[in-house]
Amino acid sequence: MAHSPDAVLKDLKAKKFAPIYFLEGEEPYFIDLITDYIEKNAIAEHEKGFNQLILYGKDSPVNVILSNARKFPMMADRQVVIVKEAQSIPDFGKEDAQKLFISYLNNPLPSTILVFAHKHKKLDGRGSLKKELDKKTVFVNSEKVKDWKLNEWIEGYFRELGHQIDGKAAQLLGDSIGNNLEVISNEVGKMLINFSEPTKFTAEHISKYIGINKEYNNFELSKAIGYRDAIKANQIIHYFIQNPKAHPVIPIFSLLYTYFSKVALVHRAGAIPENQLAGVIGVHPYGVKEYLAASRNYKLGKVIEVFGFIKEADLRFKGVDSGSMNEGEILRELVYKILH
């Protein structure tokens, strides 16, 4: 049974270590978080020279990894063996290597903490190795945070750091960076250098310290379109066209598709209380009024048309029936069709 990253970190902080950790999945942030914690805290600093080994998958066949895992610690209670980039272990998919690995799973050395950081992909769930790992290791499936849960994750991340962030600022941060948790944590870390006391962060903080324009960003564009504010939407589009490297169109297409998908869900939900609607469409409660307004401005038939406009713009960007249109012209035409 897979363990959640939070549960594993809680145990690690309580000094509860297991013989084997297998960390896999598409979200490297949680894999790195657990791996780094074990690397820094599982054994004392003065013991690491003899009792901590970092291996890299592409240079480490299974038999090499296991022979190191079977060594006893030197003048210490335990040793740590960490296999980074474990997805590149050369013989991991071969039957003989998997048999060796399963044999070790059945009888691991209690004084070794063996960690596999298997990033960006998952093992085949149909194989016997995956089933054994699930039963006999601390197995973590590190999944990408869903877009509609990103605000919640950002708010929780700030709480863990001893701070707060308001809903609008969290959405600005998430919409501008996306669900790349490593980038979010790095940007937040650089911002927090400037704050020694617990702080509640606003959009002004995000704009000033992270450099996300609080007036001209993807979040404000979708909001202006939702409220059918053509003047504001075109001002933002003009700014984007002047700064194309900072505002590529593909994430904008994706954001608008997600935005109107939520508007479609509002239509489907019908007349239900706002607090329930927030859960149905997957937004922070403070954002529900915006989507209700958008649903009044865009009837369901128009929403379906918008999906077609976004698909058309995406194909034109990829060179299908684009003629001489450049990236900015494609984006401007898309917004015009949506608004009118």
Describe this structure in words.
The chain has a 5-stranded parallel β-sheet with strand order 2-3-4-1-5, sandwiched between helices. The chain has helices spanning 5-13, 28-41, 48-51, 62-69, 95-106, 128-136, 150-160, 167-177, 181-192, 203-210, 218-226, 230-242, 249-269, 274-281, 288-297, 300-317, 327-339; strands spanning 20-25, 52-56, 79-84, 112-119, 138-141, 164-165, 200-201. The radius of gyration is 25 Å and the shape is elongated. It is α/β, with parallel strands linked by helices. The N and C termini lie far apart (51 Å). Helix 9 crosses helix 10 and helix 13 crosses helix 15 (288-297). The mean pLDDT is 91.
Offer a concise description of the structure:
The protein has 340 residues and is of the alpha/beta class. The protein is built from 17 helices and seven strands. It has a five-stranded parallel β-sheet, with helices on both faces.
Describe the biggest sheet?
5 strands, parallel
Mean pLDDT, to the nearest integer, reads 91
Distance between the termini: 51 Å
Low-confidence stretches: none
Order of helices and strands: HEHHEHEHEHEHEHHEHHHHHHHH
Spatial strand order of the main sheet: 2-3-4-1-5
Query: Looking at the structure, what is the overall shape?
Result: elongated
What structural category characterises the helix and strand content? alpha/beta
Radius of gyration: 25 Å
Sheet-strand content, in percent, reads 5-15%
Number of strands: 7
Can you count the helices? 17
- Report helical residue fraction: 55-70%
